[in-house]
Input
Amino acid sequence: MSIHDLIARRATGGAGTPAPVTLPQALRDPRLERASMARPKVSFIVTSYNYESYIVECLRSVTRQTYDEWECIVVDDVSTDGTVAAVRAFSESPEARGRFTLIERTENGGQMEAFHDGLRAATGAFVCMLDADDVLLEDFLAAHMRAHLSVATVAFTSSNQYQINAKGEIIGGQHMDHQSKGHYRHVRKTSFQTGFWIWATSSSMVFRRSTLELVMPTDGTTFRICADYYLAHFCHLIGDSLLIPTIHGCYRRHGHNNFGSNPVLGNINSVGNLDKHPPHDLFRWTMINHVLRNYDVFYPIFMGKGLVRFLLRLVKFRELPRLAAQYPKVFPGPVLRYQWWAIQQAWAKRHTPVSEKFKILPPPAEPEGGRG
Output
């Protein structure tokens, strides 16, 4: 048990316990302004393939953000319609204010490759993976940056979304996958389990760029669709995630989405055809292999015992003997030790209450105008 878990367990907040200190909201702390500290830039990375019908509306929603420290990088994945011309015209218009960059790929590579090109060009400390057919509401960035800087330090945040159709009509008042249930929830202590998705779509997320760069595959593995499944899960395993209960964007269901092409039928149904989704084990082994191949990068982050315990959130019990034999630098002790750790972690996961895995946090103070 870490010191953080021990403190959390003992901090019951019972009678006689002093009220916790309320931290200032970083975005409204005048001391930071007087010290000439800058607000972090956010890089929107818009990946697009044949979305001429929607992409200008998407880009226009970026320009309306009340949080004004942003840049937008559009990566076209060799569209065959008028997408490039539409983006170029918008980028050169006064409305864009010179803050949009267009990258034209020479070969169609799919979602992961297009996003990786955008990430290489990004200069922001935070990144939003924005789908070209979605629309953000004007307070999207303000809500996410308040959450990142004043609610919890996590790898990424995910806010709720309206559902809209091809014509821009609102067909759903929330995203059914988003499990905030009306609260800010710090999601922690999870393993990479099949069917675990409690966020909205990639357009609902703002990542720490440093975490994204850490998890990007380096062995040539790529995902033409559902790259956000890999990125969200891997980043979450490394640095946790935070669910923002309020709605700050619109997810478009037009029937031709790369994956989420199913209609809204009511309650929770799969957003897309799961037969088209890359297999869970492909994602899992890409993560495992990435950590093992980049041991020298991950070791200082977790240290030896911590790195093994991190891998045990991905590796199955029966796979341990082979991996321990293949990677003695990572698993220097007897394999029985690591199998015992795996049993301990499985027991802890089973007995950790949901209130700890989806920990409710107080919301940030409402902005009072000015730079919020």
